[in-house]
Fold this sequence. Notes:
Layout: H1 10-13, H2 24-31, E1 37-38, H3 50-59, H4 72-82, E2 89-92, H5 95-106, E3 112-117, H6 121-129, E4 133-138, H7 147-154, E5 160-164, H8 176-184, E6 191-195, H9 210-215, E7 221-226, E8 239-243, H10 246-255, H11 263-274, H12 276-299, E9 311-315, H13 320-329, E10 332-333, E11 335-336, E12 345-349, H14 353-367
Parallel strand pairs: 1-10, 3-4, 3-5, 5-6, 6-7
Antiparallel strand pairs: 2-8, 7-8, 9-12, 11-12
Helix pairs in contact: 3-11, 4-11, 5-6, 13-14
The chain binds 4'-deoxy-4'-aminopyridoxal-5'-phosphate (PMP).
Amino acid sequence: MDSVKPLIRDEVASLPAYNAGLHPENLRRQLGLARIVKLDSNENPFGPSPKAIEAVKAAASTLYRYPDRNETALRALISGALGVEPDRLAFGDGSEDLIGIIYRMCMRPGEVAVTTVPSFGLHQIWAEVLGARALLLPFEDGWRFPVAAIERALADRPRVLILASPSNPVGVVMTAEDVDRVLAACGPETLVIFDEAYVEFISPEARVDVLARLTRHEGPWIVLRTFSKAYGLAGLRLGYAIARDADFIRNLYKVRSPFAVNAAALAAAEAAFADTQHLGMVTGAIRGLRGELRAALMKRGLEVAPSEGNSLFFDVKKDSKAVTAALREKGVLIKPWLEAGYTSFVRVSIGTRSENEAFLTALDAALA
Ligand code: PMP
């Protein structure tokens, strides 16, 4: 007899296990390899600002205290930089935690979150946990955001519209016109969530000031950002939300675990956010390497989606799991896509030049 089954809610039991990357140390030991090239989780291969590392060391002596649950110093920094009132910001244990919290605040069983497919899994999973569901709209040809389909879906007044721009996994961004059309179609009962986890990697010519456009939107909205990607602090877990209303944020803090953001993360993020020079170095380098890697893949005859993020998404025309397993044997980790309709696609994060070269060598062997 299965002793657990009667306990677990159906919504949870029927969920697939989350497809997270493998921890590199486990693989290194398993294969007895000297080097693992980890390009499966869209991390920053250059790491955080050295000032963030110093800040974590300095914070070590006070780690026996609970952290500042008002995130006062970091809140002031971000509020000043964005020109947003401090009480319109919320912080969470990674931005994925904030997605779950916001869904728990707003979504009731049976309600709908509209998003694109392929998609960031948690945009869907956190809805399903609640007995709500995601409506997945495929990108148009050329990986354009499916704006017309989104407009049609919004006519049914879904509870949430959640869009990542740059998209994970595709990497494409919404144009200014896309953003304006989507907002114009949104009724006041739909919460618009723009997930900008990769915003810092967008090249200047493709950048759309989503926050400025949202400021003119009458309905409720949230923008999500993270310290995990361009700031290189994935291991510390810190994301933030910018909301239209301070009242939304006050309610969010009733649902959030009180001390969700740890003291080391706060110390590191304050230093990292202030170090705009390091951020510029990282994002400039990633943009350059992204162009090089995309060109190298296209030279091999692969169709690679245009990307403004720190990853590339492409069709290997074979079972993605088999291809990524072959790369893993060589110590190279990339992410197989498992969503229906995209199971021959893989996502590779942009690494250092030497990591990208090791990836290409392993890929050539796997596709030969
Ligand atoms: N949003 C998107 C689109 C992502 O790709 C990710 C991480 N892969 C996240 C949110 C969550 O990031 P974190 O929880 O590390 O802030």
